[in-house]
């Protein structure tokens, strides 16, 4: 299996996990504060990473690029706050679509930072993906401009985070990257928790544990994907999250799935297909 195909499959797994996290965020938003959601997402993900620390020993923590780990944690946590804010206020599929702006930004950042030159077909795929997102958006999408601006900020920060992973992956293994991300985001997000604490029921606690599991799996899969394949070539597969989000939204909240949404999804996946295929030929 080529690195590009393997990277695309890992990214599909990661996006399924992230859509699942989105569904859990929406489920818990009526009971828990956004500060609690962000903290417990990172805390339980950190707990699941501790066995890796035990397996690898403290050698896992040895790094000369701590500044990149800290930078990624800062952009990641701000992106989480923004994204969870959006998910709590929009239908799941609509909220996930906001985040799909990030694949448009990744090749631009990779071009100037990593000197990765996207081909004309990749650029065409990005444009086609943009058309697909526009088709999939609900007709009333423009009625929440402030929320969409927060979502746009989240998308930009996600693109920076993904490109950072690619930049540091030449010396930093995936497990170390994810462990430091979990550790630093858990520590940073713990600071405001006492000021925004709300009582939680058993269902919410179970949901938080599940969110930590999905976060750990998703982060490992995404980190490994961007470590073995160029960000500008597999970033298009981030669009797959809209499929999972639409499915979860329909199953759990009976959110409508329109023909326009299906048409947009088909265009999005075709854009990802031609972008990947041209690298295999």
Automatic annotation (TrEMBL):
Domain EamA: 6-136, 148-274
Predominant location category: membrane
Keywords in alphabetical order: Membrane, Transmembrane, Transmembrane helix
Subcellular locations according to the entry: Membrane
Superkingdom classification of source: Bacteria
CC per GO annotation: membrane
SUPFAM superfamilies the UniProt entry points to: Multidrug resistance efflux transporter EmrE (SSF103481)
Topology of the protein relative to the lipid bilayer: Multi-pass membrane protein
InterPro entries the record matches: EamA_dom, EmrE-like
Entry keyword Transmembrane helix: yes
Segments passing through the bilayer: 35-54, 66-86, 92-114, 121-141, 147-165, 177-197, 203-222, 234-253, 259-276
Pfam family, one: EamA
Protein name: DMT family transporter
Organism ancestry: Bacteria, Pseudomonadati, Pseudomonadota, Gammaproteobacteria, Chromatiales
């Amino acid at each position: 299996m080529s690195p590009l195909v393997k990277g695309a499959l890992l990214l599909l797994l990661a996006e399924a996990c992230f859509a699942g996290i989105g569904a859990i965020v929406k489920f818990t938003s009526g009971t828990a504060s956004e500060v609690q959601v962000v903290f417990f997402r990172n805390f339980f993900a950190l707990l699941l990473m501790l066995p890796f620390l035990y397996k690898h020993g403290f050698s896992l923590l040895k790094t000369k690029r701590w500044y990149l780990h800290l930078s990624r944690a800062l952009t990641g946590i701000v992106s989480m706050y923004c994204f969870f804010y959006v998910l709590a206020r929009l239908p799941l599929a609509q909220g996930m679509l906001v985040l799909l702006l990030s694949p448009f930004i990744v090749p631009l950042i990779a071009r100037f930072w990593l000197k990765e030159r996207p081909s004309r077909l990749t650029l065409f795929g990005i444009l086609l993906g943009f058309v697909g997102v526009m088709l999939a958006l609900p007709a009333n999408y423009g009625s929440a401009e402030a929320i969409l601006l927060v979502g746009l900020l989240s998308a930009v920060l996600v693109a920076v985070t993904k490109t950072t992973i690619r930049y540091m992956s030449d010396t930093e293994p995936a497990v170390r990257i994810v462990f430091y991300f979990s550790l630093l985001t858990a520590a940073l997000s713990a600071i405001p928790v006492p000021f925004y604490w709300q009582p939680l029921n058993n269902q919410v606690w179970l949901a938080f544990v599940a969110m930590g599991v999905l976060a750990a799996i998703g982060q490992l899969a995404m980190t490994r994907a961007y470590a073995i394949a160029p960000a500008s070539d597999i970033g298009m597969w981030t669009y797959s999250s809209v499929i999972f989000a639409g499915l979860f939204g329909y199953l759990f909240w009976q959110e409508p799935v329109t023909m326009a949404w299906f048409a947009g999804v088909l265009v999005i996946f075709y854009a990802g297909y031609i972008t990947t295929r041209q690298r295999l030929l």
